[in-house]
Amino acid sequence: MIKTMTAVAASLLLAGAANAGTVFNVDALADSWNSGAGAGLDTGIALTAGQAFTVTAGAGDLWSAGALPRWSNANGLTGNLFATGTDESGEAAGTLIGQDFGIFDGFAFGELVGQIGNGAYFAVGTSFAGAANATGDLKLFYWDSNFADNSGSVAVDVSVVPEPGSVALMLAGLGIVGGLARRRSKQVG
């Protein structure tokens, strides 16, 4: 009985972090910010203001804002990028495929940007770790002023730290269940 309770407790603790390590593909065309007209990718991950979370994307995972040289990773078009010969651009090794296109409405063209609920936009890039600036679902965007010629997507991994109150409540419930099980086993024995 105690082994069963331990297994249940372990599975409940893992369930408490259910939103940890969820992977999404953010598409440069479908999830474009598009000068504020795009809806972005709604991850369905609900965050509470102040809750800790991370978002990471591979530095070698590329997407495009259009004709060369507009390929970048999730950090956006911030400097010269040369094809490797095996990357998503399909260009020969050494070809200039990306360059600095400057800032548009506060973020780099082609940058991965987030928004929680109707809160302020924030830079995500290839790596973000911080606290939610609002309460609501996390949305992710490809930042661009014109999305018609965008292509490619980047895979992002979103991990959420469960709120302390939820963990405390779950642990209290497990303590009560464990106490009842011990009491019951003493009465039977």
UniProtKB/TrEMBL annotation:
Taxonomically, the superkingdom here is Bacteria
Question: Which keywords, in A-to-Z order, does the entry hold?
Answer: Signal
Q: What is the lineage of its organism?
A: Bacteria, Pseudomonadati, Pseudomonadota, Betaproteobacteria, Burkholderiales
Q: Does the keyword Signal apply?
A: yes
Q: Where would I find the Ice-binding protein C-terminal domain in this sequence? A: 161-184
Quote any Pfam family the record assigns.
PEP-CTERM
Q: Which InterPro entries match?
A: Ice-binding_C (IPR013424)
Organism of origin: Scleromatobacter humisilvae
Task: Respond yes or no to whether keyword Signal is given for this record.
Answer: yes
Instruction: Read off the NCBIfam families from this record.
Output: PEP_CTERM (TIGR02595)
Q: Could you tell me what this protein is called?
A: PEP-CTERM sorting domain-containing protein
Q: Which residues form the signal peptide?
A: 1-20
